[in-house]
Design goal:
By secondary structure, the protein is α/β, with parallel strands linked by helices. It has a single domain, classed as Aminopeptidase. 34% of the residues lie in helices and 22% in strands. The protein contains six helices and eight strands, in the order E-H-E-H-H-E-E-E-E-H-E-H-E-H. The strands form two sheets. Strands 2-1-3-8-4-7 form a six-stranded mixed sheet, with helices on both faces. Helix 2 packs parallel to helix 5. The longest helix has 16 residues. The chain is globular and about 45 Å long. It starts with 7 loop residues before the first strand and ends with a helix.
Length: 219
């Protein structure tokens, strides 16, 4: 498929392991099962499902691993997807108090952890990236959040846009990812999901499959 062919969207996905108060993180299970689930279901046209990784629920101490993972998206860029489409990082995180899905519009350059992360780090009002300056600095996704929410709502999912990804590890990873995306001319999106007790595993798997379909369709 040369440059004349239809453009391809490659989506790389991350979830998180357990953390304080959440002994079973639904996003770990979703991400571990996603490739098999999508193989059975059939990938939407124009979509390539790239790497699927589960991250340590940690901030500063896990940055080297995070960048190793983020780098995967651009390492294969020249070989597989050179000049033929878009690369998206899709990060999934759990919001244990949520009753519906939330598509996060932005991340803030502030780490204020309500409890220590899995490496024992508990920053208060610290910048995520010191060289980015103020902790009030915001980075926004370049993906059309309202269109994505609209598409998923039409499919019957209870989903909302959000401007607040918290100040814990989810926001920390999203901020780094948005910065990385901007520097590498790719895109990044963070989605908060509820616990499986609130929305069952099968529905959440279907939701992520539908989200991939929406991301693969031209906006």
């Amino acid at each position: 498929m040369g440059s004349e062919g239809p453009s391809v969207v490659t989506v790389h996905v991350t979830g998180f392991k357990k953390f304080h108060g959440v002994s079973e993180n639904p996003t770990e299970i979703i991400v571990r099962n996603l490739k098999g689930f999508m193989q059975k279901k059939g990938l939407p046209e124009g979509l390539v499902l790239g790497s699927c990784n589960v991250l340590e629920t940690a901030g500063e101490g896990a940055v080297p691993q995070l960048y190793e993972v983020l780098q995967l998206a651009v390492a294969g860029q020249n070989k597989e997807t050179s000049e033929r489409g878009q690369i998206i990082w899709l990060h999934l995180g759990v919001n244990s108090g949520a009753t519906r899905f939330a598509i996060e519009n932005q991340a803030v350059n502030e780490a204020t952890f309500r409890c220590p992360d899995e490496m024992g780090w508990k920053p208060q009002r610290a910048p995520v990236v010191t060289s980015d300056g103020s902790i009030s600095r915001v980075r926004e996704t370049s993906l059309p959040v309202s269109e994505i929410v609209k598409g998923l709502s039409k499919m019957g999912y209870d989903v909302m846009p959000s401007d607040d990804a918290g100040r814990f590890v989810c926001n920390f990873v999203y901020y780094h990812s948005l910065r990385f995306a901007e520097h590498n001319r790719i895109k990044s999106l963070f989605v908060h999901v509820p616990l499986f007790l609130t929305i069952d595993e099968e529905t959440q798997m279907e939701f992520v499959a539908s989200l991939l379909k929406v991301l693969a369709s031209p906006h």
